[in-house]
Amino acid sequence: MPTVARAIIREVFTENADGKRPVRKAVVSLPRKCGKSRRASGLCLAAALGPLHQPRGQVVSAANDRAQAALIFDEMRAIIEAVPEFAVRTNVVAFHKSITVLDGDGKGTIYKALSSDAKSAHGLSTHFAVVDEYGQTKNPELYESLATSQGAYDNPLLLVISTEAADDQAPMSRLVDYGKRVKAGDIEDPDFI
What we know:
- By secondary structure, this protein is an alpha/beta fold.
- The chain contains six helices and seven strands, in the order H-E-H-E-H-H-E-E-E-E-H-E-H.
- The protein is globular, with a radius of gyration of 16 Å.
């Protein structure tokens, strides 16, 4: 699995000659219990206070329900608590499932975990968003809200991590099918992987 994860990271985060990532939307579909949420938590931290940060940016992880939405937040909080440099640079509010970067790279950036109440995503302006377990949703509204929230940034990323959906007409199934067509060269979309 680590080799697969590295290949995915390289494919999604490869920069062009101008130092920009061409990929703006990525869909990663892996089997259950492969550590998708744990890996996504590391990427959210990199977007909040690491090499993927934006000054006063917004980082979001979203899922269908509160418990799933909390998984990435809980992993991020555990990492922050284990790394003293991160702990002194952040304010973690467990009740709100939010993290604010107080100092250093990403100062002013706010991370928030959201559940499927898509209306809460309409006022956002995210530079990095993760949709966790999208295969379990029947309504694409949250994904679409997050996708349209990224227009203010030059190099945003929306990452979907999930197992396959059981229904071929589910939003995740449609994204996977679109991705397969892009990969096969049937559709030209350099922003999507």
